[in-house]
Design a protein that fits this description.
Elements lengths: L2 E4 L5 E3 L6 E4 L20 E3 L19 E3 L2 H7 L2 E2 L5 H14 L11 H12 L9 E3 L8 E5 L2 E6 L2 E6 L2 E7 L6 E3 L3 H8 L9
Parallel strand pairs: 4-6
Antiparallel strand pairs: 1-2, 3-4, 3-5, 7-12, 8-9, 8-12, 9-10, 10-11
């Protein structure tokens, strides 16, 4: 069993469950197919599992490391964005909604996506290498956001929480009243969801 599945906190874990999306952070494994670093590049992307009939042997030496996600909401929570090549239409839609949700940066559609990646990197990882999170009132959260509730990741959807697991989500839980939640999804993605980008959710 390979360590190549990503959880909502961005951790790379071992699980027999298969993913619905493919991810890339550069070459982060060794010749023994072991993860040796959390990332190598700032462009963390989410790809489709199949594209133009191309075939890849997972964790080939000196080739980028194939990572997998339960759903797109999980990929966003981990800090990944749509790929420009295999998900061109999604990438354009992502950029349009990201710009609407984050006008404070003064970017436009001509701005290189690398500028957005720089911001995302600051929203993913803190100086001590921990995941960046923040506190928010549930009423301010859009569907598709991943949060911590009772120290476990949950998906926020239609004012309910769904416990995340590698194999899927649990039954809905009624939102706690007057209680802020720890948000796992990077803030600029949450802003993007609020503007209307709806991520694919496995629930």
């Amino acid at each position: 069993m390979l360590q190549n599945r990503v959880d909502p906190l961005g951790n790379i874990i071992k699980t027999p469950e298969r993913g619905a999306w493919l991810g890339n952070r550069g070459v982060i494994h060794n010749e023994q197919k072991e993860i040796i670093r959390p990332f190598k590049i700032k462009a963390w992307i989410t790809c489709v599992l199949e594209f133009r009939g191309r075939y890849r042997k997972v964790m080939t030496p000196d080739r980028w490391t194939e990572l997998f996600f339960l759903d797109e909401a999980t990929a966003f929570s981990a800090g990944h964005r749509p790929c420009f090549q295999c998900r061109y239409a999604d990438h354009i839609r992502f950029k349009e909604f990201w710009l609407k949700g984050n006008p404070q940066y003064g970017f436009d559609m001509k701005t290189p996506v690398a500028r957005i990646d720089d911001i995302l990197q600051s929203e993913r990882i803190a100086a001590d290498k921990s995941k960046v999170t923040y506190e928010e009132n549930p009423k301010a959260l859009p569907d598709g956001t991943l949060v911590l509730y009772k120290d476990k990741p949950h998906l926020f959807k239609q004012n309910q929480l769904f416990l995340w697991s590698p194999g899927g989500y649990g039954n809905p839980i009624v939102l706690p009243e007057a209680e802020k939640l720890t948000v796992l999804t990077p803030r600029s993605f949450v802003n993007m969801f609020s503007e209307g980008y709806i991520p694919q959710m496995a629930v």
